[in-house]
């Protein structure tokens, strides 16, 4: 159990968190994103993703899941509107790995998606910006960013899916991901730091425990038909505590806590919470279980 720390927080009115978006994007790409590789692999294997698959990756971030699908022969399109710095990394990564022609600009706008190679696109904007009338509809839509940890994240995902599913073929698979039961996720005790430090009067963006039917409720609201589910072990492993702090902060799950206190306070609390998960060699290891739901478009 994480020890309870008793303290008084000074007033932080007007405090601006010292967050470097580019550094956060690098930390996500280099440290945190790989923690979900078992989830991506399990989904792609179950759905037999390959040469006949056209993937639309929602919230594609820095593109690792897209790259894995492309390596299986799928045509992939990634779309993201929240993290332009991650998206830029995705463009570079996918172009380098697919050896396709360079994009048609250093930074494409919402109406000019970056083409990074044959069958590979990265789009900054909403799902509708990923539509290409000259191409067949998508056969697989993925929303791999796990929900169930932030207040309101289920609402946001339901709205996103409602906008994305019209771009998919009839009966296409739609994959939603979420955190598993808190008792099966060692990282839960660390994520509670976000709740302790966040402003209790501003619940939006603060951490909450995952609920059993989160994914099913989102699918229902988006007009999708559930068609199977699974659980995947995704342990979070880090070289040291510093890497763990950087990786976890890159998720954005602690941004509300930083805004309510300050980044130094959050760093300190995170380090304390990670202590029980640090092994004798200095590495940090937290077993977790993530859940995915496969749904079908009408």
TrEMBL record:
<keyword id="KW-0489">Methyltransferase</keyword>
<dbReference type="GO" id="GO:0008168">
    <property type="term" value="F:methyltransferase activity"/>
</dbReference>
<dbReference type="GO" id="GO:0032259">
    <property type="term" value="P:methylation"/>
</dbReference>
<protein>
    <submittedName>
        <fullName>Class I SAM-dependent methyltransferase</fullName>
        <ecNumber>2.1.1.-</ecNumber>
    </submittedName>
</protein>
<feature type="region of interest" description="Disordered">
    <location>
        <begin position="1"/>
        <end position="23"/>
    </location>
</feature>
<dbReference type="InterPro" id="IPR029063">
    <property type="entry name" value="SAM-dependent_MTases_sf"/>
</dbReference>
<feature type="region of interest" description="Disordered">
    <location>
        <begin position="92"/>
        <end position="119"/>
    </location>
</feature>
<feature type="compositionally biased region" description="Basic and acidic residues">
    <location>
        <begin position="105"/>
        <end position="115"/>
    </location>
</feature>
<keyword id="KW-0808">Transferase</keyword>
């Amino acid at each position: 159990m994480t020890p309870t720390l008793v303290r008084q927080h000074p007033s932080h009115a007007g405090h601006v968190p010292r967050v470097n978006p580019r550094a956060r994007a690098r930390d996500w790409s280099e440290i945190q994103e790989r923690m979900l590789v078992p989830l991506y692999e399990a989904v792609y294997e179950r759905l037999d993703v390959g040469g006949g698959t056209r993937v639309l990756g929602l919230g594609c971030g820095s593109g690792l899941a897209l790259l894995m699908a492309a390596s299986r022969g799928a045509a992939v399109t990634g779309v993201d509107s929240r993290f332009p710095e991650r998206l830029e990394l995705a463009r570079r990564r996918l172009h380098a790995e697919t050896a396709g022609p360079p994009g048609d600009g250093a930074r494409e706008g919402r109406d000019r998606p970056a083409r990074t190679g044959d069958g590979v696109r990265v789009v900054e904007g909403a799902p509708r910006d990923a539509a290409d009338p000259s191409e067949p509809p998508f056969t697989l839509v993925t929303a791999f960013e796990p929900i169930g940890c932030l207040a309101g994240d289920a609402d946001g995902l339901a709205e996103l899916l409602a906008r994305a599913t019209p771009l998919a073929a009839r009966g296409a698979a739609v994959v939603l991901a979420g955190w598993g039961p808190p008792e099966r996720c060692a990282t839960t005790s660390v994520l509670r730091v976000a709740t302790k430090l966040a402003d209790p009067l501003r619940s939006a963006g603060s951490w909450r425990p995952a609920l059993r039917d989160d994914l099913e409720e989102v699918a229902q609201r988006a007009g999708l038909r559930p068609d199977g589910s699974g659980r995947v072990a995704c342990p979070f492993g880090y070289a040291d505590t510093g890497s763990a702090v950087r990786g976890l902060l890159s998720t954005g799950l602690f941004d509300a806590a930083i805004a309510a206190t300050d980044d130094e306070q959050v760093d300190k609390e995170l380090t304390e919470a990670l202590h029980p998960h640090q092994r004798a060699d200095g590495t940090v290891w937290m077993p977790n279980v993530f859940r995915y739901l496969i749904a079908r478009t009408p």
